[in-house]
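quick one, two chains, predict together pls
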Amino acid sequence: AQSVSQHNHHVILSEAASLELGCNYSYGGTVNLFWYVQYPGQHLQLLLKYFSGDPLVKGIKGFEAEFIKSKFSFNLRKPSVQWSDTAEYFCAVMGGLNTNAGKSTFGDGTTLTVKP
Amino acid sequence: NAGVTQTPKFQVLKTGQSMTLQCAQDMNHNSMYWYRQDPGMGLRLIYYSASEGTTDKGEVPNGYNVSRLNKREFSLRLESAAPSQTSVYFCASRAGAYGYTFGSGTRLTVV
Protein backbone atom coordinates (compact mmCIF):
# COMPACT_ATOMS: atom_id res chain seq x y z
CA ALA A 1 0.00 0.00 0.00
CA GLN A 2 1.11 3.55 -0.60
CA SER A 3 0.86 6.40 1.88
CA VAL A 4 1.88 10.02 2.21
CA SER A 5 2.70 12.12 5.25
CA GLN A 6 2.86 15.89 5.24
CA HIS A 7 4.63 17.26 8.28
CA ASN A 8 3.08 20.67 8.62
CA HIS A 9 -0.63 21.29 8.87
CA HIS A 10 -0.45 25.07 8.84
CA VAL A 11 2.45 27.33 7.88
CA ILE A 12 2.38 31.10 8.23
CA LEU A 13 5.01 33.20 6.45
CA SER A 14 5.60 36.80 5.58
CA GLU A 15 5.99 37.84 1.97
CA ALA A 16 9.49 37.23 0.57
CA ALA A 17 10.21 34.48 3.10
CA SER A 18 11.43 31.14 1.85
CA LEU A 19 9.17 28.12 1.89
CA GLU A 20 9.79 24.44 2.40
CA LEU A 21 6.93 21.99 2.90
CA GLY A 22 7.79 18.48 3.92
CA CYS A 23 6.42 15.33 2.32
CA ASN A 24 7.36 11.72 2.96
CA TYR A 25 5.88 8.76 1.20
CA SER A 26 5.77 5.04 1.62
CA TYR A 27 5.79 2.66 -1.32
CA GLY A 28 7.94 -0.32 -2.15
CA GLY A 29 8.49 0.26 -5.86
CA THR A 30 8.82 2.92 -8.50
CA VAL A 31 6.77 5.98 -7.74
CA ASN A 32 5.46 9.08 -9.39
CA LEU A 33 5.22 12.04 -7.07
CA PHE A 34 3.13 15.18 -7.30
CA TRP A 35 2.39 18.44 -5.61
CA TYR A 36 -1.01 20.00 -6.09
CA VAL A 37 -2.23 23.42 -5.00
CA GLN A 38 -5.77 24.38 -4.05
CA TYR A 39 -6.52 28.08 -3.88
CA PRO A 40 -9.42 29.11 -1.65
CA GLY A 41 -12.71 27.92 -3.07
CA GLN A 42 -11.11 26.25 -6.06
CA HIS A 43 -10.21 22.76 -7.21
CA LEU A 44 -6.79 21.17 -7.08
CA GLN A 45 -4.28 22.07 -9.75
CA LEU A 46 -1.02 20.34 -10.55
CA LEU A 47 2.05 22.31 -9.43
CA LEU A 48 4.75 19.86 -10.45
CA LYS A 49 5.48 16.19 -10.89
CA TYR A 50 8.36 13.76 -10.71
CA PHE A 51 8.55 10.61 -12.84
CA SER A 52 12.22 9.85 -13.29
CA GLY A 53 15.53 11.48 -14.11
CA ASP A 54 16.65 14.72 -12.49
CA PRO A 55 15.46 14.59 -8.89
CA LEU A 56 15.06 18.36 -8.80
CA VAL A 57 11.88 19.26 -10.62
CA LYS A 58 10.60 22.71 -11.38
CA GLY A 59 6.96 23.59 -11.57
CA ILE A 60 4.78 26.57 -12.17
CA LYS A 61 4.93 29.87 -10.29
CA GLY A 62 8.54 29.41 -9.15
CA PHE A 63 7.97 26.24 -7.13
CA GLU A 64 10.39 23.35 -7.15
CA ALA A 65 10.67 20.02 -5.38
CA GLU A 66 13.47 17.60 -4.72
CA PHE A 67 13.05 13.84 -4.75
CA ILE A 68 15.40 12.16 -2.27
CA LYS A 69 14.95 8.45 -2.74
CA SER A 70 16.99 7.44 0.30
CA LYS A 71 14.75 9.54 2.52
CA PHE A 72 11.47 8.76 0.74
CA SER A 73 10.94 12.49 0.59
CA PHE A 74 9.63 14.99 -1.93
CA ASN A 75 9.77 18.41 -0.30
CA LEU A 76 8.31 21.48 -1.95
CA ARG A 77 10.30 24.73 -2.00
CA LYS A 78 10.00 28.31 -3.11
CA PRO A 79 12.72 30.90 -2.46
CA SER A 80 10.39 33.86 -1.98
CA VAL A 81 6.66 33.52 -1.37
CA GLN A 82 3.99 35.99 -2.34
CA TRP A 83 0.63 36.78 -0.82
CA SER A 84 -0.97 35.05 -3.82
CA ASP A 85 0.65 31.76 -2.76
CA THR A 86 -1.83 31.52 0.10
CA ALA A 87 -3.46 28.15 -0.52
CA GLU A 88 -3.55 24.55 0.56
CA TYR A 89 -0.83 22.27 -0.77
CA PHE A 90 -1.15 18.53 -1.23
CA CYS A 91 1.57 16.00 -1.81
CA ALA A 92 0.53 12.83 -3.65
CA VAL A 93 2.11 9.53 -4.59
CA MET A 94 1.15 7.30 -7.48
CA GLY A 95 2.86 3.96 -7.38
CA GLY A 96 2.97 1.02 -9.73
CA LEU A 97 1.27 2.59 -12.70
CA ASN A 98 0.52 -0.67 -14.45
CA THR A 99 -0.73 -2.50 -11.37
CA ASN A 100 -2.22 0.31 -9.42
CA ALA A 101 -4.52 1.78 -12.07
CA GLY A 102 -2.92 5.16 -11.53
CA LYS A 103 -4.51 5.66 -8.15
CA SER A 104 -3.00 8.51 -6.23
CA THR A 105 -2.84 8.75 -2.46
CA PHE A 106 -2.87 12.25 -1.06
CA GLY A 107 -1.44 13.69 2.09
CA ASP A 108 -3.67 15.56 4.50
CA GLY A 109 -2.56 18.90 3.10
CA THR A 110 -0.64 21.91 4.37
CA THR A 111 -2.36 25.26 4.61
CA LEU A 112 0.00 28.10 3.72
CA THR A 113 -0.91 31.61 4.80
CA VAL A 114 1.30 34.41 3.49
CA LYS A 115 1.00 37.70 5.31
CA PRO A 116 1.46 40.83 3.19
CA ASN B 1 -12.10 24.81 -22.63
CA ALA B 2 -10.85 21.24 -22.32
CA GLY B 3 -11.11 19.74 -18.89
CA VAL B 4 -13.31 17.99 -16.36
CA THR B 5 -16.84 19.23 -15.82
CA GLN B 6 -18.81 18.41 -12.69
CA THR B 7 -22.45 19.08 -11.93
CA PRO B 8 -24.00 20.26 -9.73
CA LYS B 9 -21.65 22.65 -7.90
CA PHE B 10 -23.75 22.74 -4.75
CA GLN B 11 -26.42 20.44 -3.36
CA VAL B 12 -28.34 20.08 -0.13
CA LEU B 13 -30.02 16.76 0.55
CA LYS B 14 -32.15 15.43 3.33
CA THR B 15 -31.09 12.22 5.02
CA GLY B 16 -32.29 9.27 2.97
CA GLN B 17 -32.58 11.11 -0.34
CA SER B 18 -30.66 9.96 -3.37
CA MET B 19 -28.73 11.86 -5.99
CA THR B 20 -26.22 11.43 -8.78
CA LEU B 21 -23.13 13.55 -9.26
CA GLN B 22 -22.16 13.91 -12.88
CA CYS B 23 -18.65 14.11 -14.28
CA ALA B 24 -17.49 14.41 -17.87
CA GLN B 25 -14.05 14.91 -19.42
CA ASP B 26 -13.19 15.85 -22.97
CA MET B 27 -9.49 15.01 -22.95
CA ASN B 28 -9.88 11.41 -24.12
CA HIS B 29 -8.45 10.12 -20.84
CA ASN B 30 -8.86 6.46 -20.04
CA SER B 31 -8.91 6.68 -16.25
CA MET B 32 -11.33 8.57 -14.04
CA TYR B 33 -11.64 8.90 -10.28
CA TRP B 34 -13.97 10.14 -7.57
CA TYR B 35 -12.50 11.60 -4.39
CA ARG B 36 -14.04 13.22 -1.37
CA GLN B 37 -12.33 16.00 0.52
CA ASP B 38 -12.90 16.55 4.21
CA PRO B 39 -11.11 19.06 6.45
CA GLY B 40 -7.82 17.74 7.79
CA MET B 41 -8.18 14.45 5.92
CA GLY B 42 -6.92 15.31 2.47
CA LEU B 43 -8.57 13.53 -0.41
CA ARG B 44 -9.83 9.98 -0.12
CA LEU B 45 -10.57 7.79 -3.10
CA ILE B 46 -14.16 6.57 -3.35
CA TYR B 47 -14.21 4.74 -6.68
CA TYR B 48 -12.20 4.71 -9.83
CA SER B 49 -12.42 3.52 -13.39
CA ALA B 50 -9.15 2.50 -14.98
CA SER B 51 -10.76 2.28 -18.40
CA GLU B 52 -14.15 2.36 -20.07
CA GLY B 53 -16.23 -0.57 -18.86
CA THR B 54 -14.41 -1.12 -15.57
CA THR B 55 -14.95 0.28 -12.10
CA ASP B 56 -13.33 -0.54 -8.77
CA LYS B 57 -13.67 0.42 -5.13
CA GLY B 58 -11.27 2.84 -3.56
CA GLU B 59 -10.58 3.60 0.07
CA VAL B 60 -14.08 4.72 1.14
CA PRO B 61 -16.71 3.16 -1.18
CA ASN B 62 -19.47 2.41 1.34
CA GLY B 63 -22.70 4.24 0.58
CA TYR B 64 -21.74 5.02 -3.02
CA ASN B 65 -22.10 3.50 -6.47
CA VAL B 66 -20.60 4.54 -9.78
CA SER B 67 -21.25 4.15 -13.47
CA ARG B 68 -18.77 4.60 -16.28
CA LEU B 69 -21.30 5.43 -18.93
CA ASN B 70 -18.76 5.81 -21.71
CA LYS B 71 -15.20 7.04 -22.03
CA ARG B 72 -16.19 10.60 -21.24
CA GLU B 73 -18.59 10.20 -18.33
CA PHE B 74 -18.23 8.80 -14.82
CA SER B 75 -21.08 9.36 -12.39
CA LEU B 76 -21.27 8.89 -8.63
CA ARG B 77 -24.54 7.94 -6.96
CA LEU B 78 -25.63 8.23 -3.37
CA GLU B 79 -28.58 5.89 -2.91
CA SER B 80 -29.55 6.96 0.61
CA ALA B 81 -27.66 10.02 1.75
CA ALA B 82 -26.34 10.25 5.31
CA PRO B 83 -24.90 13.24 7.20
CA SER B 84 -21.49 11.53 7.13
CA GLN B 85 -21.50 12.02 3.38
CA THR B 86 -21.43 15.79 3.77
CA SER B 87 -18.24 16.66 1.91
CA VAL B 88 -16.74 18.18 -1.19
CA TYR B 89 -16.57 15.71 -4.05
CA PHE B 90 -14.00 15.93 -6.81
CA CYS B 91 -13.89 14.04 -10.05
CA ALA B 92 -10.55 13.65 -11.79
CA SER B 93 -9.18 12.10 -14.93
CA ARG B 94 -5.69 11.00 -15.88
CA ALA B 95 -3.69 10.24 -19.00
CA GLY B 96 -0.77 7.86 -18.61
CA ALA B 97 1.76 8.72 -15.91
CA TYR B 98 0.74 12.34 -15.73
CA GLY B 99 -1.04 13.92 -12.84
CA TYR B 100 -4.72 14.35 -12.47
CA THR B 101 -6.95 16.99 -13.98
CA PHE B 102 -9.64 17.81 -11.46
CA GLY B 103 -13.14 19.12 -11.84
CA SER B 104 -14.30 22.14 -9.90
CA GLY B 105 -16.02 20.03 -7.24
CA THR B 106 -19.47 19.48 -5.78
CA ARG B 107 -20.16 20.76 -2.30
CA LEU B 108 -22.74 18.41 -0.78
CA THR B 109 -24.53 18.96 2.50
CA VAL B 110 -26.74 16.25 3.97
CA VAL B 111 -29.09 17.43 6.71
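The mean pLDDT of chain A is 92.
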